[in-house]
Amino acid sequence: MNHNDGLIECDFGDWTGAALAELAVLPQWQEVQHSPSTFRFPNGESFMQMQARMVGALEVLRAAHPGAVVVCFSHADPIKAAMAHAMGTHLDLFQRIMISPGSVSAIGYVQGWPPAVLMVNSTSEPLSGLRAP
């Protein structure tokens, strides 16, 4: 198993380690919830940067393993951002995608075609059913 920095959690900057209850009362919290595409965490990363990083990492992995099934592990927000990109959904709507701990989501990539969302937030289907498209 390899570590890939492109798949890590969003850099929350000054908000790292803060309790959600403390953050939820900040005026910026509404922007995080309703317009994440315009928000950048203080001294951290924007959601747009996180999504670009995640999608870029997946593209590098896809190119390095043509025709193969590659399994990646990450946190909910980066997975939601990658799924939103694959679905063609605006980043401001990515919080509508549910990603549970330990769930499986799958994106199929075929050269010359847009990504295909094969599975989202599955907690019951075996990985043995996944095949390269």
Automatic annotation (TrEMBL):
Its EC number is 5.4.2.1. SUPFAM superfamilies: Phosphoglycerate mutase-like. The keyword Hydrolase does not apply. Keywords: Isomerase. GO terms for molecular function: isomerase activity. Pfam families: His_Phos_1. Gene3D superfamilies: Phosphoglycerate mutase-like (3.40.50.1240). It comes from the Bacteria. The keyword Isomerase applies. This is Phosphoglycerate mutase/fructose-2,6-bisphosphatase.
